[in-house]
C-alpha cells in the first residue's frame, strides 16, 4: 500500500548543518569581521525579504521563470523575494537613509542569502555571506582598499599568501573592447560576459564556441552563443588572454588590445590607480593580480570587478580532485542606488561566501572546526541521585565549562560511547563509592582516543584504564581545565 508518510529529504541545494559545520562558519566570521572593523566599516543588518522590484533583476540566471530568486506575493499583492545578496538591500537602505548617513558610508554585514539556481560542489541555494561596502566614493582607491581587505581576510581565515589570490578586472575595459569590436546590442553584450565568465571551466575553445553560434555540452544540451563575428571573437579571446604575473605588465598588454577607446582608456586609468594604491598598501602580485577574464556574473557592476580564488588542490567527498574557483568577489556598482533616487551614488564592495569558504577549506584539509568539541558528560547511574549529577553539571557550567548530564536510558558502557561520539573531552563518574568518599572519577576521553590508536592488547587496555583518575570533589574544576588546556 502506498504510504502517506512524507520522505525525509532536504530540497536540492539546501543542507543540514551540525555543530562542525556551524562551528567552521562561525570561526570564519569571527576571523573576518575584525578585519572589516580595522578598516573602519560599521555593522548593518537588513531583513531577509525585500520587495522584488527593490532587489532588481541582476542575477546571471535570469532566464529562469522566477528570475533566480525565491519569491512570494504579500496580502496586498506586492511581490517579495528572499534576498539573493546583501548588496541590493544595502542600496535600498542607503537610498532611504542617505541624508542621515556619514558619507562615504562604510558598512559590513553578515547574513544568509538565497538563490534559486542550479546547485553544485560547494555551491548551495542557501548560504551565508560576509560583505563590506563603501557607498559614496568614486575614487578607484576605494576599490583598492576593498581588494586589500579581501586579501587580508583570506589570510585571517587561514589561507597564507600563495594559497589564494584576488583577481581584478574592469567592466569598462570589456565595454571598450566590445565598442571597438562593433558590439552594441545589450543581449549580445550579456552573452559575451557570460561566455567569458566560463573561461576557467571551459577553456578558450569552449568560450570561443559560446562567443559564436553556441556550444553543445557532454549531455547534448545546446547553449546559444553571443553570435559574434570571427574578428570580434579573436579580439575578445586576445583580451582575456592578456593577463600576466605582474600588474604593470598586464596593463601594458591590455593597452595594446583595447585600441584606444574612450571607455577602455578610462578602465586602464582606473586599474592603474588601483595598482598604485595596492602597492602603497603592501599588496603585491602574490595577493592581487589583474586578470582580464574576470567579469563577475551579477549585472549591476559598472567598473572594477574582483574575485577571490582558492589556489590549493581540493578533493570532493569521494577523494576526487575538484575545482572550487571563486570564494568571493565584488566590484563597483555606481548605478544601484540611482535606481531609487535617480541620482548616481558611487559604490564598491566585496562579499565572501562563508558557507562556500568553509566547504573549500574542508576540501583542502584546512577545516577551521576539524574537531568541534562536545560538552563534559556527567554519567548518570541512579535516578535517585540525579540531583547530585545536576549539581556537578551546574558547577562546571558556572566555571564556564560546557557540561551535560546524560538523560538517556542506557547503562554505563552506552553512556561512555555517547560521550565519545559527542567528542567530549571528559566524562565525570560519580557512583555510590565516590559520593560516600567525597570524590569524583574523571575519564580523560581525549587522552583515551589518542592512546587507543596505539593499543595492541585490548585486555591490558581495559585493565590499565588509561586517562582515568579519582580525586577530591573540590579538585574537579582544575582537573577538567587541565584536560581542556592540554588539547587546546
TrEMBL record:
Reaction equation(s) it catalyzes: tRNA(His) + L-histidine + ATP = L-histidyl-tRNA(His) + AMP + diphosphate + H(+)
Pfam families the UniProt entry points to: HGTP_anticodon, tRNA-synt_His
Cross-referenced Gene3D superfamilies: Anticodon-binding domain, Bira Bifunctional Protein, Domain 2
Ranges for domain Aminoacyl-transfer RNA synthetases class-II family profile: 7-375
Xref: CDD domains: HisRS-like_core, HisRS_anticodon
Entry-linked InterPro entries: aa-tRNA-synth_II, aa-tRNA-synth_II/BPL/LPL, Anticodon-bd, Anticodon-bd_dom_sf, His-tRNA-ligase, HisRS-like_core, HisRS/HisZ, HisRS_anticodon
Primary location group: cytoplasm
Compartmental location: Cytoplasm
The entry's keywords: Aminoacyl-tRNA synthetase, ATP-binding, Cytoplasm, Ligase, Nucleotide-binding, Protein biosynthesis
EC number: 6.1.1.21
Molecular function per GO: histidine-tRNA ligase activity
HAMAP family recorded: His_tRNA_synth
Sequence similarity: Belongs to the class-II aminoacyl-tRNA synthetase family.
Alphabetized NCBIfam families for the sequence: hisS
Subunit structure: Homodimer.
Family annotation (PANTHER family): HISTIDINE--TRNA LIGASE, HISTIDYL-TRNA SYNTHETASE
Protein name: Histidine--tRNA ligase
Gene behind this protein: hisS
